[in-house]
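MOLECULE: protein
FOLLOWS: sequence and fold
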Amino acid sequence: MRMAMISGVALVCAMTLASPVFAGGQQETERIDRIVPIGANGSLRLNNFSGKVTITGTNRADLSVHAVRRATRDRLDHIHLEITQTTSGVSIEANKKDEDYRERDNNVVETDFDIEVPADISLDVHVFSSNVEVRDVRGSQKVHSFSGEVALSGVWASVDAETFSGDITVGLANSAGGRVDFDSFSGSLRTDGAVQVRSSDRRHFTADIGAGPNEYHFKTFSGDVKIR
C-alpha cells in the first residue's frame, strides 16, 4: 500500500511533565459508578488531568461512567468528580475543587475512566497527561491532550485531535474519508492508504483520503500521527 509521510524540523529538548504527587498522606482509592441519561445525538464533554480515559460506543441509550480516583483522603474529600446534564448532553469534570480548598501541592486527583456511550454521540475531551482511547463512536470527536497518547478506532465522522508530545492513531471505518489537515513542528504523519496531496511544506500538510465529507484536523508539536 502507498505510504504518505510528512516530517517537521528535528527538535532535541528535555522536558519534565507534570504528574500527581501524593505528598502529606496515604494514597487512597475511590470508585464511582453512575448511569446518566443522554439524548439521542447528544454530546459528552470530559475534562481530566491524569489517568487513562477509555470511551466505547455501544447500542445503549444512556451513558455509563466507571471511574477510579486515586489521591490522599484530604484531596478526595475536597476535589470532586462532577457529572452534570447539560442542554446538549453530559459534562464530566474530574477535578472540581471546593471553593475554599487552597492546597498548593499539585492539588489534582488521578482518575481512570471507563465510559460506555450511545454510539451516535459526539465527544469533546480535554486532558493533560491522560492516555485517551475511543472505540466505535460514530459522532464527531474532539480530543486535546498535552502528553497523553490518543487512539481513535472505528471513526465515522470528523476528528479534531491535538497533542504536544503524545502520538495520535486514528482507525477510519471502511466508508469514512475526507480532508486531512496536519500541522506539526517536528512530528510526522503517515497513512496506510492512498492520499491525494493538496499542499505540503515543512510543518503543514493537507490531503484527501477516500471520498468522504469529513474533516480530520491534527496538530502536534513533536507527536506523530498515523491514519489507518
Observations:
- The chain has a mean pLDDT of 88.
